[in-house]
Amino acid sequence: MPSLADIQSRLRDAVVTGQATAILPLLVGGQEAAKRLAIHRRHYETSLVTALLGKFPATAWLVGTPFLTAAARQFVREHSPSAPCIAEYGEMFPAFLVTRPRADGVPYLRSFAELEWHVGRVSIAVDRPAIRLEALAGLRGTALPDARLILQPGLRHFLAPWPVDELMTLYLNGDAPDHLSFEPAETPLEIRGARGEFAIRRLSAGDLIFRSRILEGWAIGDAAESAFEQDERFDPGRALRTLVDDELVTAVGQ
Fold it and tell me: Could you give the percent of the chain with pLDDT greater than 70?
């Protein structure tokens, strides 16, 4: 008799990949085990496809529901969830979309879908109390560059190769122009959200790098240096003050 772990592995393979040969002899208590197992597999696939479509409604608006549904079905078959939380499923879906037939006709598809993924993630966050600029006053001048700031959980930064925030605005406003003139352009975006709401804003190149590095856990001085290397107009004092004024800093870490 196989071990429990082996049985679970076989059942998982049958449901996820359709390879049911190893598990069918162990399915008892009824007739036509293969058909009964197929019901569970269809439910598994349908549930994940529905979850994906629910996370990318704007992308469906952009490319059409039939295209997105077909892509979602194939994605589910090739990429099973790697975490128990279904909210985390779909991060790689935007990259997968561009491998689908006819996706090259929408060169900004991946960027738009990635923006929508970020929007979905920040929208379910819960804001924490923000600190005031006075909280940094207690740090001595030499200690400030080495300090690390904790930022709001509903915050993401994204350097989009297309101005996809304009497309998102069209979707949110319910506009569908007959013709859209759209050219590639690097667009630094900050996406902030909490409790079902979100906002998208453009940043300067330096501010995007600075805030991204702070969010990643870099020290203030190192983040500022990285930003200045890419943007000579970057002002670290103004950037730090604006970060606090925007109520994005929740604590000073180590």
Answer: 82
Separation CA 41–CA 3 (nearest Å)? 23
Looking at the fold, whether 102 and 133 belong to one and the same domain comes out as no
Per residue in 187-210, pLDDT (tens digit) is 999 999 999 999 999 999 999 999
The alpha-helical segments, DSSP class H, found in the chain are: 4-17, 33-55, 57-63, 65-78, 93-97, 109-123, 134-137, 164-173, 205-215, 220-230, 236-245
**DSSP code of residue 76:** H
User: Residue holding tokens 């935007």?
Assistant: 94
Distance spanning both ends of the chain, measured CA to CA? 53
Domain that holds residue 251: 128-254
162 and 254 belong to one structural domain: yes
C-alpha span between 154 and 125 (Å, rounded)? 5
Q: What angle do CA 179, 182, 185 make, to 5 degrees?
A: 170
DSSP 212-252: HHHHTT--HHHHHHHHHHH-TT--HHHHHHHHHHTT-EEEE
Do residues 5 and 101 share a domain? yes
Spatial distance between the Cα atoms of 223 and 100, rounded to a whole number of angstroms:
38
* 68 contacts 56 by C-beta, under 8 angstroms: yes
36-94 residue pLDDT tens: 566 566 777 888 999 999 999 999 999 999 999 999 999 998 888 877 778 889 999 99
Phi, psi of 127 (to 5 degrees): -60, 145
Task: Say if residues 61 and 45 touch (Cβ distance below 8 Å).
Answer: no
